[in-house]
Amino acid sequence: MTSSENRSHFSASCCGVTEEARAKINLALHVTGQRADGYHLLDMLVTFADCGDRLGFLPAQADAFTLSGPFGEALAGDGGNLVLRARDLLREQVGALAFPVHIHLQKNLPIASGIGGGSADAAATLRGLMRLWGMSLPAEALARLALTLGADVPMCFESRPLIARGIGERIEAVPDLPAFAMVLANPLKGVSTPEVFRRLAAKNNPALHLARSLSATGDWLTAIGSARNDLEPPARELVPEIAVISQMLQAHGALITRMSGSGATCFGIFSTMTAAQEAAAALHGERPDWYVQATETASGGM
User: Where on this chain does ATP bind (predicted)?
Assistant: First the structure.
């Protein structure tokens, strides 16, 4: 039962336990097949940015959920919010340990934008509530619970550079992935993930072979540049602004540009954080109606 599920200016930083829900960036996303149940098989190189949503958790007399942030209003009244689902599923697992809690979500990332916002929020809820409730789950049980919430939730729970395969549940850490200066840009237009997959020209594409690329060049940027996002061409058909964003990032000095997830967020990798900040400022000046954010990604040795 939830006593309050509304927008609030209550700050997540005021809470007893806080968790960052970092933006998930698909540096590469290869669609390699499709299971009989309809789920697509993927090879993904994933990293996480130092920007994202923030969640706070406090003991309460009754369950409460409040929202703030630039994109909080878009979630108001969403009874199926992944934060609430994560809370309820975890409570089923731990029983009496799970006292009532006030959860506050500061929603800084655009909704349904291909950077794992909802999945990262769910993963941060699991981490935060386990800390607040003073409990933990066996790794296998936690992995099953996270996957129940969504294919991206297990990797968002890790929140570190990784390769994810299958539907996202087979995770391998990438400890030598460096940090990157990056600009994220989104035209604030929704993209239907099912429609993107429906429009895929091929669903049995070549797998991700990072080790081969790295052994040939020894350079991460070259290896990432040789990879791809198979969902980008169909997403561009649905939202032409994705191609425009890529062109604008390149014009402002991006070394690599690509769409993340099923879109519509695109990223550009820059040589320095100063270059990324200057490019973000220029893009924001040109398109103040878009979401634009300079950020830095986590290194594998974080």
Answer: 110-120
pLDDT in tens, 90-103: 999 998 889 999 99
Task: State the catalytic residue, choosing from 24, 43, 53, 63.
Answer: 24
Tell whether 168 and 213 lie within a shared domain. no
121 shares a domain with 225 = no
Residue 4 has pLDDT above 80, yes or no: no
Return d(Cα 215, Cα 232) in angstroms, integer: 27
Which of these is catalytic: 37, 152, 189, 289?
A: 152
Does residue 46 sit in helix, strand or coil? strand
Task: Please enumerate in sequence order all residues whose Cβ is within 8 A of that of 105, keeping only pairs 6 or more positions apart, or say none.
Answer: 12, 53, 54, 55, 65, 66, 67, 68, 69, 72, 75, 83, 121
Q: What residue numbers does the annotated binding site cover?
A: 110-120
Active-site residue, 24 included: yes
Q: Binding site for ATP: what residues are annotated?
A: 110-120
CATH number at residue 244: 3.30.70.890
**Binning pLDDT at 50, 70 and 90, where does residue 289 land?**
very high
| 203 noted as active-site residue | no
pLDDT in tens, 170-187: 999 999 999 999 999 999
Which residues in 126-226 belong to E strands, given as ranges? Answer: 162-166, 170-173, 181-186
CA atoms within 13 A on the CB side of 115: 29
Q: From the DSSP assignment, how many helices (H) and strands (E) are in the chain? A: 10, 11
Number of structural domains found in the chain: 2
| Residue 301's pLDDT band (cuts 50, 70, 90) | confident
162, 227: one domain: no
Among candidate residues 173, 205, 237, the one where a domain is terminated = 173
Report the b/e string of 125-157 with b at 16+ CB within 10 A.
bbbbbbebbeeebeeeebbebbbebbbbbbbbb
Give the per-residue pLDDT at 76.
Answer: 79
Residue 200 counted as domain residue: yes
Which residues span the domain enclosing 118? 5-173
